[in-house]
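Ticket #4471: structure output looks truncated?

Reporter: J.K.
Steps to reproduce: submitted the chain below (515 residues) through the standard prediction queue, then opened the result file.
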Amino acid sequence: MIKDNRILLGKADAKEVYLLPNMTNRHGLIAGATGTGKTITLEVIAEGFSELGVPVFLADVKGDIAGMCKKGNLETISGRIEKMGLEGFDVKAFPVRFFDVLQKGGHPVRASISEMGPQLLSRLMGLTEVQQGVLNIVFRIADDNGLLLSDLKDLRAMIQYVGEHNSEYTEKYGNVSKQSIGAIQRAMLQLEDDGGNIFFGEPSFDIKDWFANDYDGRGYVNILDCRELIHYPLLYSTFMLWMLSELYENLPEVGDVDKPKMVFFFDEAHLLFKDAPTALVSKIETVVKLIRSKGVGIFFISQNPTDIPDTVLAQLSNRIQHALRAYTPAELRVVKASADSFRANPAFKTSDVLSELKTGEALVSCLDEEGRPNIVERTTICPPQSGMSSIEDDRRNVIISSCELKEKYDNTVDPESAYEVLQEARAQEAEEAEAEAAAKATKKTSSKKSVGERALTNAASTLTRETAKDLVKSLTGGKKSTKSPLEKAANSVISTLGGEVGKTLTRGLFDVLKK
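Returned output as attached by the reporter:
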């Protein structure tokens, strides 16, 4: 609910508690045990930004945030409205668009392999420094040859091709070992099994499409359906790495603004950080620290503040803490640490109140106009103006079908990329190899034929000489006297026969005999 261009979070007794739009790029935390009202608080803040004309992005893990597309049930919340004395409160629906990395509950969100880049992919897949270097070479070779890396089949084809021709690239790009190629291919298998084949492809998503308003000037509520995605942690991490990198690298510097350009909410953040790749945690830390100057606010919603890494938690200045239940010494220490993070209110002991809060109540401390934390207030959170439950698939499908982004993203495109080009190159190499093999076979056959011909000629020559000698012997009666002119002629013929081919030998012999 908006009042004086500020987001009314709730009331502490008669005092109104606000979240200032110009301070939301200092980020925020909404924490509390299950069932204490975190999602309602998230919804109230998201509605406020939408009314201010600020688009928001929500990761919907449970599916109940989808209810923002319909009006709230006034009968259900009328008692709370009256008790809090909320004037001018009215139920309304908000402009919602649905997205889904798995392409089931919303418009597809894709990214190309080229956009992801070798550094992020290497960190995501946990490659060693040497393996990352090889992946860099693969990307460089693709760039130098104008080969588009669109999806995982392109990357796999490119890695395989470089591995097969590594000797050709060593001098120019560096050593590419078979072991590193194999390790990268094995790491890709896990990414494929976790849904990477769905996320990587074309058309890739333009993150600027989230920065949009409806015809009334209200910011769109962009909801990422994570009901299934959350069960694919590596794919979720892949998406997060890509999105945060796109935000930081593509948004212009704007400094401090009256209201943020966009606000991101990550529900169930403990699932995001649990067993997350080091690359993801590092990227989140970097983005949270530096993205303030881009005019973007980030809110993490989690069950416990300790679910958030300390380096990230230290950057979250606007804090809304719902009840924490403490039954063990470790849980009591968490309650105390959480209470100590607030600016104390002399009216109550924060650690005691933190365990006593009812559903819909929270300890709130947001930044004031000077950027200082307000003293903590025990606040009853306003009810949301939109629905507080999941929606039917039919309603979701109608919203998806009527969205202007449907034509842009819903149909997968498979452009001519590295896979197709390398397939053609392999086919050409196979044809050339086949032609070369045929030429060698022909040459070998020809060589064998020449050898046979020489052997046959030699045999014929020998046979002709012997025959001629026998003829001469028969003509002379076998005598060894002084050679007659005939003998001399015969010997001359024999000498000549020895240096010619068989056919000429025979013809010469018959010429002699005729004489």
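Triage note (M.O.): checked the attachment and the full token line is present. The two ends are 133 Å apart (CA to CA).
Status: closed, working as intended.
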